[in-house]
Design goal:
Elements: H1 4-20, E1 44-47, E2 50-53, E3 56-64, E4 71-78, E5 81-83, E6 88-90, E7 94-102, E8 111-115, E9 125-135, E10 138-154, E11 157-166, E12 170-177, E13 180-183
Parallel strand pairs: 3-13, 8-9
Antiparallel strand pairs: 1-2, 1-12, 3-4, 4-7, 5-6, 7-9, 8-10, 9-10, 10-11, 11-12
Amino acid sequence: MINFRYIFALSGVLVLVLSACEKTPVEPVKPVVNPFTAKVDWNGFVFDTTRYHTPSAFLENWGENLDSLSSDFDIKFTDGIFDDQLHNVRNYSILVYFDANSPSVNEFSEGTYTVENTVERKPGNIVEAWVELSESGKLYKYQITSGTVVVEKKDGFMLISYNAMLNNSHNITGQFTGSITPIVQVLK
């Protein structure tokens, strides 16, 4: 005769085994969203009411400064491309350049950087900065004589905003968020 207890116990074990093997549904991968796009809808700057677009950014790490408290980073916003052989930006009509000194020896840190136009490198200062505009075949270079650059970071993204004075007479305001291309460190 059939032992119902044996069949019942075997059925219970079978149910437990099969339910333990149930697959958990895989959650779809959510796209990574830049949290700063709500604050910034374009990359570039305004100069004398004209908007200049700088869709590319390059961050060059020159390494730790002699003060052992900061590192030298060059940030370039442009419509050009970086040439690895020339080690510079080429094919551009717009270039914004800041020679900034991060208060960290390891990274381009969040915070406010101040244009000082001095040879003394110290945490949080910018020792040199300018804007180059190419119009009608002529290159115009404007020295950034004062101003600030603010760096914010969130979720692996960076927002860099700047407000500066050109040649002691023209204000520019600009911003960049998105992919910033790191440039291979060059030894001094």
